[in-house]
Each structure stands twice: as C-alpha cells, then as structure tokens.
User: What shape does this take?
Amino acid sequence: MKVVVSDNMNPGALEKVKETGAEVIYKPDSLEDAVSDAEVLVVRSATKVTEGLLSKAPKLKAVIRGGVGLDNIDQDACRKRGVEVANTPGASTNAVAELALGLAIATSRNIQKAHLSMKEGKWEKKSLSGTELHGKTFGLIGCGRIGTLTGEKAHRLGMKVVGYNPPPRHVSSFMEYVELDELFRNADIISLHVPLNQNTEKMINTESISKMKEGVIIINTARGQIIDEDALYDACKSGKVRAAALDVYCEEPYKGKLLELDNVFFTPHIGAATQEAQLRIGEEIASKIRSLMD
Ligand code: NAD
Assistant: This one.
C-alpha cells in the first residue's frame, strides 16, 4: 500500500507509520505527482485536501488527518469520491487540555509578562500581581474530549466549572451545564473547545464579549476563526477583556495587530506539540492504515 505523508510529522510517529509495512513517501516535492498512485494520504493542518487534489488521486481510499480538526479537508468532495476521512481524535486531548490550563495559570499570574519584564532588566513586583484560579469560575465553550478534560483539571485546582454544549452531552460530576449567556455572565476565565463550523465561526464577537464579565480572561486553543480578532483587539485594548491567550489564529503563521497589545499572549499552534501526543498520533494513524490493509 502506498501512503503519502504530506505534512511535517514527528520522527517517532513517522516510524510507527513505516512499521505498518506500507511504502511511505514523506513530504514529496510534488504532492500532485505523489498522490497519483497513492491509496492513503496522511495530512496534518497545512495540506488543503481540495476537490482539485482529489482529482489527481484516482486510487485514493482514505485521507487521514493526524489531529482533530477536519477543516482543511473538503469532506463533501471526499464523500463524493468515496474516499474515507479519518482523524486521530483522542491523541492530542491531554496535550491541549494541559496547554489550555497552563495558559490560564500563566495569564492569571502574569507569568509571560514577568518573564519579558525581567529579560528587560526590570523587577516589577507590584504591577505583576495577579489573581488565583482557586474559587474562580471556569467557563468551557465546547465540552467534548478536550473541554471536558480541561474542566476536570480546572475542578481539581479548586475552580467552579461551568460548560456550554448543545445536546447530546456527557454528564460529569465536576461540571454544571449552563446556557451560553449565563456562562458569559459568570465566567472569570472562558476557554474555547468547539470545532470550527458555521455555528461557531466568530461566536466570540463584539456582542458576545459585551455579555462577559468586566476583566474576563479568554483562552483559545480551538480554532482562530472562532474569535472575531478585531472584536478581541478592541476588547483587550479597552480592558473589558483583561487578557487573552491564543494558540490558534484566523491566519497562521499569525502576524496581525493583536501582537501590538501587552495583554494578549501567543503560542504558535502548539496545542498538540508534545512528544507523547505526537507518538499517539503516529500510533492511531498506523492502526488506521493497518485496518485499510486488511
Ligand atoms: P470534540 O468533538 O470532542 O468536542 C467538541 C465539542 O464541541 C462537542 O462536544 C460538540 O458537541 C461541541 N460543540 C459543537 N458545536 C458547538 C457550539 N456551537 N457550541 C458549543 N459546543 C459545541 O473535539 P475535541 O477533541 O475536544 O477538540 C476541540 C477543538 O480543539 C477542535 O476545534 C479542534 O480543532 C481543537 N484542537 C486544537 C489543537 C491545537 O493544536 N491547538 C489540537 C487538537 C484539537
């Protein structure tokens, strides 16, 4: 079986894919040429799987996305062509949950600012005073795999956890489901964990931000397009939003105007970038390839 891996892959994960015995072509110079006789295409988030690309791949049986979001794959076009679309849904859950919580702690305690200020030779003990997570309300928008695990970890740190997720939803002992407006009214920290779709695109906008608490913190490790970046810019500038920490952006690599602000903190889409998650992604891709070989 010929497998084309078109995006960057961790060496350990690539090894897991090779252990399947498939012929693996890694990051070919011409993707269109490479897929002409491929049966499986493995992508991360960079490759756009379009109708045009699929038309160059007559033998393709499956597109496997190493990661969760399928927004870079034209799923309708795959369906029409009879190409299966799979992802590795659970592999990065813990890595993203830990990042979301890490950003919540770092932002509440001004860790990023403190680091930068000391690098500039300053000792700003007073102005870097922050707030604690314990006793605060953590609002999760999207309570699937990552949202629920992030909520469980926040609960263990002594936070009250509220979540918004349309039914069907899993019931959990540590989280209370609320309506979105109630979450906006009460959450001290809001963490986004929804997929990108037409209902979630720009769901954080001027209107929804106006319903939030004065001084709320927003964490986005889901998808950039879920936030209207212009609205976030205005709200962070005015202080309505005390701080935001972003791992994902409307356009990546991000070069936009939020970088001007001192109360917005950035990571370059590293939610799943842990050794452990990358290996799990490799294992899940390999297992999918094995099932296609059977
Ligand atoms: P999931 O499918 O398990 O959970 C998503 C949840 O969102 C579901 O429970 C769904 O019902 C809910 N939902 C859908 N529409 C909603 C809406 N309008 N309002 C509220 N809830 C809604 O997915 P997951 O594995 O938890 O992943 C969540 C997000 O994390 C995805 O956007 C994914 O792309 C992103 N992600 C980012 C990284 C990263 O590197 N930063 C890595 C992995 C996943």
Q: What stands out?
A: The two ends are 11 Å apart (CA to CA). The mean pLDDT is 97. Residues 67-69, 89, 92-93, 96, 141-147, 164-166, 193-196, 199-200, 221-223, 247-248, 269, 271-272 surround nicotinamide-adenine-dinucleotide (CB under 6 Å). The first strand starts at residue 2 and ends at 5.
